[in-house]
Design goal:
Elements (H helix, E strand, L loop, with lengths): L8 E2 L5 E2 L2 H13 L29 H17 L9 H4 L7 H25 L22 H9 L5 H13 L1
Antiparallel strand pairs: 1-2
Length: 173
């Protein structure tokens, strides 16, 4: 019975091990898998695998790109022109919005009022009928310089009293 004379691998607890990989794994678990290190997992790679250390992670401008993409998507969804995309040369000229853009802005405002009513109702457990949210913003044109006033006067958007107020304002400057 030659078979009984063969040396067998055993761990420190005299348990038989089948091969050297199992012996290595048993040693690693004995060293690092004690009662004080719960949750530690060990993995043994095959001999033909190499381990390469990765370089440090560097953060670029991906965050800004994602934010810009999000802003563009929101502006596109609501059909509103993104003012940040307007070139500096165009900022001095008056941009008149079309009637469709104005109605779209009003529709978005009404939609947001309904969203706020629903959020308030759900958040504070108030019946939806008891909640009213209104936007009391008055529409007005932005006047950046005298050219804007001239464009508005040419478009006959200024009433006579507005023209007088503009003259008084320019006289004080």
């Amino acid at each position: 019975m030659m078979h009984d004379n063969v040396l067998r691998l055993k761990n420190r607890y005299n348990k038989d091990l089948r091969n050297t990989n199992e012996a290595k794994l048993e040693w690693i678990q004995d060293q690092f898998g004690g009662g004080h290190t719960q949750g530690i997992a060990t993995h043994v790679l095959p001999p033909n695998m190499g381990v390469i250390k990765l370089s440090n992670i560097t953060y670029g401008n991906e965050d800004e790109i994602l934010k810009q993409h999000y802003h563009d998507s929101v502006y596109t969804f609501f059909g509103v022109q993104n003012q940040s995309n307007v070139q500096a040369a165009n900022k001095s000229t008056t941009e008149l919005i079309s009637l469709a853009q104005h109605q779209n802005t009003q529709n978005v405002t009404c939609f947001l009022e309904q969203v706020l009513q629903s959020v308030y109702s759900i958040s504070f457990d108030v019946p939806l009928e008891a909640v009213r949210v209104t936007n009391n913003g008055t529409p007005h044109a932005t006047i950046n310089n005298t050219d804007d006033i001239k464009h508005m006067a040419d478009a006959e958007l200024l009433a006579p009293q507005d023209k007088k107020k503009a003259r008084k304002l320019m006289d004080t400057l």
